[in-house]
Amino acid sequence: MFAGLDPQATALVLARMQFAFTVSFHFIFPAFSIGLASYLAVLEGLWLKTGKPLYLDLFRYWLKIFSVAFAMGVVSGLVMSYQFGTNWSVFSDKVGGVIGPLMAYEVLTAFFLEAGFLGVMLFGMKRVGRGLHFAATLMVALGTFVSAFWIISVNSWMQTPTGFEMGPGGQFLPGPSWAAIIFNPSFPYRLVHTVIAAYLTTALVVGAVGAWHLLRDRTNAHSRKMFSMAMWMAALVAPVQIVAGDMHGLNTLEHQPAKVMAMEGHYQSHPDGAPLYLFGIPDDKAQRLDYAVGIPKASSLILKHDPNAPLAGLDTIAPENRPPVWIVFWSFRIMVGIGFAMLGLGLWSVLARTRRRLYEWPMLHRAAVVMGPSGFVAVIAGWVTTEVGRQPFTVYGLLRTADSVSPIAAPAVAASLLAFVVIYFAVFGVGTWYILRLMSAAPEPHEDGPEEDEQAPIRTAGITPAHQPQGGVQ
Amino acid sequence: MAIIDPRLDGADQAEARPLWQRLGWMVAIWLGSVLTLGAVAWVIRSWLNSPQN
């Protein structure tokens, strides 16, 4: 695949592959932990409000999974900063003055809100009491959100850079207002779309675990409760996500039109209304979409709210500034397809509820199990759409990717990429296997928490706590 | 009707302690967690800054 490329171009491709691989791996864990932290806060809040031990059992069940996912997110995230120094030192030198402080805020948040209060969540219940423990859970949930705030602000600034001044050495320097940098034009849309995606991802995992255990025992009150909560999320939040995604798309059309052209597969301009292509094989060399299947004028209707509105194509963009269409076109369709599948699952669950078959419909439960990992696929597909769609720039329109890379040798990048692939699959494979193992056990009454796992056995001197009937606590 | 979980004793006992004591525990655990992560970060940073890297 590197035939015909000079060594520096090969190093650039390898550096991009390395970042894409590590960030895709990393993104899985925060996407899960952002949603799971809020779910834990809801569960503990419901326990405190109702006094029902079922919520505490579910809290403890998911807390163990959260702590493993959180740890893997921290470890995989460390590699990101490592690469900024090794492979992307020119980028770091040029934009460090702007994005450095924002990333530092993210690290401070991770340290002092997420990691600090996670310790209280794991080991503090018997020492600080319920109220303070709940406060710690809320701090962790807030921390995951604030972390996302800063990271998405950084990424959004790379997509729609504002509020900076150019230094004498070509560096991007902060202008008079940090607010203009942080709240850049695409930031609010991107933040809302990403955080909702994280909530949906978590809801589908929780729903899949609940459904998995319902297929084995329909009477398990814990499985019923988490399946029901997850399906409410899918039914209520998936439509909101589709609206948020549409608004994000309109914002992208305004600020990054070439990305939308690639997403839509519009190589040519359409002066009398553009079709919405559902399928096609993009051919970047010939600048055309082969085997295209589309709905006439629907793209103009969605993007301009007028079926006859003209839409410019990639033929209006200088060839050296066009993103690669194939990847963007298909990653966008994967994301949107999964989004509508989530909506379908949510509506199915509403139908099942109205027929009082939510816990009695094995086909629905199987569908929920199949959809369990789909949120991760959707967030990575969305990430690929937005990052590859920004190409060939790292800072959109201002700093080219080819001018951001370190003067590195291709063999060195290839070796470190290989090492990352091996280590990531080994370390995170074990972590993911452990999470799946935790999920494979059904939540039970008197679920053990992390404190119990490491302390003396609960059942001592022949005294066994009486289990409550499964159906009696819902 | 709320069902009392027999293992809530620990939380109940914690509630019986004065607030300053519980807050003290919260600060101690929080500090321990931050310092633990700080130590891990320091080790990784030292490794990355070592001459062979």
By secondary-structure content and strand pairing, the structural class of chain B works out as: mainly alpha
What portion of residues of chain B belong to β-strands? under 5%
Distance between the termini of chain B: 62 Å
Along the chain, the helix and strand elements of chain B come as HH
Biggest beta sheet summary of chain B: none
Give the helix tally of chain B.
2
Q: Could you spell the SSE succession of chain A in H and E letters?
A: HHHHEEHHHHEEHHHHEEHH
Radius of gyration of chain B: 20 Å
Strand order of the largest sheet of chain A: 1-2
The average pLDDT of chain B is 77
Give the CA-CA distance, first to last residue of chain A: 58 Å
Greatest contact pair? A-B, 37 and 29 residues
Instruction: List the uncertain runs of chain B.
Output: none
Alpha-beta content class of chain A: mainly alpha
Shape of chain A: globular
Give me the Rg of chain A, rounded: 24 Å
Mean of residue pLDDT of chain A?
Answer: 89
The helical percent of chain B reads: over 70%
